[in-house]
């Protein structure tokens, strides 16, 4: 833990969304002089200004002017959504002005043990399960805290967190790419193509994820997916204890979780222990079984007892917008998987079903390959409904339809509302309609949650 004196520091915070507002409040309360800068015009910033009303903040709206660097800055704090290629940040680097973010500042000051979870898919579900396990396994007056890339930024609660508590953080590649102070227990669930519109290359994206372990020390613990090449390729960078997870039993004295005869188990490399039956998992799909195996491996690394692992899984029906059953209408099940903002996530969702699928694909592309998803669609999907900016690119990857082969039809729609209507017209009793777009929501919505909420609303309005 490193107590830093912020009094009198001049700090530029870039991005006035959830993370930016939280770190601004934290810094101002500790005596820092804060300039809060956002690219959006003042007319769009009412919610942000109201959230920080009464605090002595200087606002700069409508762009990121270079003259902000003439303010004698001690630090620039960047929100996750702000690319490091911003000219202002490049020039700040040339001038030697330090750049940080709310997660780094939190990690520098938090007094207790921290679990950090990253990956291309499954972060939020795994983080939520580990949080439930921690809550079940930690007795008062100790407390568990869950946050980071989900929920409230925990920097707002730093003064309440005690040395005996446990923090569970979801961390994105955007947050990690500038972090050097990382959790003592760090998990990389998987690394598959994602956010290449931001990171440019898989090498850069992988390097950002890898920081969660390359900045650990020898007394720390790393959790890796031994069946995912992107995660397992980082095994050579592990400095402390390694705990693995995967479906198959680990070999060669490797510690890890696995499934055998529908029982989740853990081996320390020599002795095997049964954790709980697979039937306790209520989540659909093999990818969610893997998420639970990851959560168990993380819990073991964090010292959470076995009975708490089981309690954390029991009665857990999943996180909103992640293979969420919205309704059953005229024998058709409607699922909301709006979180699927990359083709790899849509592939995992399709594999969770063995019923005929009407698949809704679209949104905004992230410069990711669609070919593997297209091959699976031709194998498993009855009807495809395309929408949004990426529709033409996805159509090109899918190619033509042929009589008697999947997909039977491919429809184009301008937006998600029209796509819901199109899916309703083509779905028959026994089918599942699956919104698992493979693209981001930013062509039509502010985030995947708003997209999922609108989908829910429109599905429930179907008569």
Could you describe the 3D structure shown?
With 463 residues, the protein is an alpha/beta fold. It has 3 domains: 10-100, 3-Layer(aba) Sandwich (Rossmann fold); 104-313, UDP-N-acetylmuramoyl-L-alanine:D-glutamate ligase (3-Layer(aba) Sandwich), CATH 3.40.1190; 324-460, Protein-Tyrosine Phosphatase, Chain A (Alpha-Beta Complex), CATH 3.90.190. It has helices at 18-29, 46-51, 87-95, 102-109, 123-137, 173-176, 196-199, 202-214, 229-232, 286-301, 306-313, 343-350, 371-380, 391-398, 416-426, 448-460; strands at 10-14, 33-38, 57-61, 75-78, 99-100, 113-118, 144-148, 166-170, 185-188, 221-225, 241-245, 256-260, 263-267, 272-277, 324-329, 332-336, 357-362, 381-387, 409-413, 432-438. The model has no long low-confidence stretch (mean pLDDT 94).
Topology (SSEs and partners):
Blueprint: E1 10-14, H1 18-29, E2 33-38, H2 46-51, E3 57-61, E4 75-78, H3 87-95, E5 99-100, H4 102-109, E6 113-118, H5 123-137, E7 144-148, E8 166-170, H6 173-176, E9 185-188, H7 196-199, H8 202-214, E10 221-225, H9 229-232, E11 241-245, E12 256-260, E13 263-267, E14 272-277, H10 286-301, H11 306-313, E15 324-329, E16 332-336, H12 343-350, E17 357-362, H13 371-380, E18 381-387, H14 391-398, E19 409-413, H15 416-426, E20 432-438, H16 448-460
């Amino acid at each position: 833990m490193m107590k830093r004196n912020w009094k009198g520091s001049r700090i530029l915070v870039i991005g006035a969304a959830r993370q930016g507002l939280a770190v601004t409040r934290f810094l101002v309360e500790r005596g820092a002089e804060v300039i809060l800068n956002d690219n959006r015009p003042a007319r769009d910033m009412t919610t942000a200004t109201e959230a920080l009303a009464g605090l002595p903040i200087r606002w700069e709206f409508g762009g990121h002017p270079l003259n902000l660097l003439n303010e004698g800055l001690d630090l620039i704090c960047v929100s996750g959504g702000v690319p490091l290629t911003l000219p202002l940040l490049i020039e700040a680097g040339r001038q030697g002005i330090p750049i940080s973010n709310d997660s780094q500042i939190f990690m520098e000051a938090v007094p207790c043990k921290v679990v950090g979870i990253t990956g291309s898919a499954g972060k939020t579900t795994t983080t939520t399960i580990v949080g439930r396990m921690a809550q079940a396994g930690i007795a008062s007056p100790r407390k568990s805290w869950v946050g980071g890339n989900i929920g409230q930024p925990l920097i707002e609660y730093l003064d309440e967190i005690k040395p005996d508590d446990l923090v569970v953080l979801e961390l994105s590649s955007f947050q990690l790419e500038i972090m050097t102070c990382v959790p003592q227990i760090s998990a990389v669930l998987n690394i598959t193509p994602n956010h290449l519109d931001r990171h440019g290359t898989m090498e850069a994206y992988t390097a950002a994820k890898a920081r969660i372990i390359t900045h650990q020390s020898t007394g720390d613990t790393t959790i890796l997916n031994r069946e995912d090449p992107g995660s397992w390729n980082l095994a050579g960078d592990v400095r402390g204890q390694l705990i693995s997870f995967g479906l198959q039993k680990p070999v060669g004295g490797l510690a890890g979780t696995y499934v055998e005869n529908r029982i989740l188990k853990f081996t320390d490399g020599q002795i095997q222990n049964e954790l709980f039956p697979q039937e306790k998992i209520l989540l659909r799909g093999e990818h969610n079984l893997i998420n639970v195996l990851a959560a168990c491996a993380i819990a073991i690394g964090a010292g959470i007892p076995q009975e708490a692992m089981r309690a954390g899984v029991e009665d857990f029906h999943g996180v909103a917008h992640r293979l969420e059953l919205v309704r059953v209408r005229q024998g058709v099940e409607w699922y909301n998987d709006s979180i699927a903002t990359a083709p790899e996530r849509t592939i995992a969702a399709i594999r969770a079903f063995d019923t005929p699928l009407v698949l809704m694909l679209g949104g905004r592309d992230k410069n990711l390959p669609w070919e593997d998803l297209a091959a699976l669609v031709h194998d498993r999907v009855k009807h495809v409904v395309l929408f949004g900016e990426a529709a033409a690119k996805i159509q090109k990857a899918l190619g033509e339809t042929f009589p008697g082969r999947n997909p039977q039809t491919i429809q184009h729609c301008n937006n998600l509302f029209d796509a819901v209507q199109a899916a309703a017209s083509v779905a028959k009793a026994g089918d599942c309609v699956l919104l698992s777009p493979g693209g981001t929501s930013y062509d039509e919505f502010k985030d995947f949650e708003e997209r999922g909420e609108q989908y829910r609303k429109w599905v429930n309005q179907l008569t």
